[in-house]
Design a protein that fits this description.
Elements: H1 2-19, E1 22-28, E2 32-42, E3 45-54, E4 63-72, E5 77-87, E6 92-101, E7 112-118, E8 121-129
Antiparallel strand pairs: 1-2, 1-8, 2-3, 3-6, 4-5, 4-7, 7-8
Length: about 130
Amino acid sequence: MKKIIVLFTMAIILSGCTNGDRYNFSGNSDNWEVVYTVEVTDEIEQQTSGIIKYIGENKDPEAIDYKIEYKNENSNSTAGNSGEASPIKRGTAEFESTVCGNCAIIQKDEEIEAEITWNGQTETFLLKTNN
């Protein structure tokens, strides 16, 4: 039994090293919930993806504009994902996976700002890591 547990533990550790770090950031406002996933592939490359879900009480909007941004403190610039007139299907909008090469890597303790605009309204809130 001990051999099985050791092998299982080693497989988990090795798979984590092979795939790089993966962080899930999340946050919500009165009307929106965002989950933003960052997968670091190496020291200078990361892939981001996410889901925006409408949690408000009114009818789901048909489309939103959004910005998911983080500040790169080393170069004093801002990076992230954005989308204009992104369709909402069944209360959810997914944004395409984006690969950033030769860029500042998001760290798991960073705060990421989400801004969502729909039907003349805008909400801004922070996303924090939950792992």
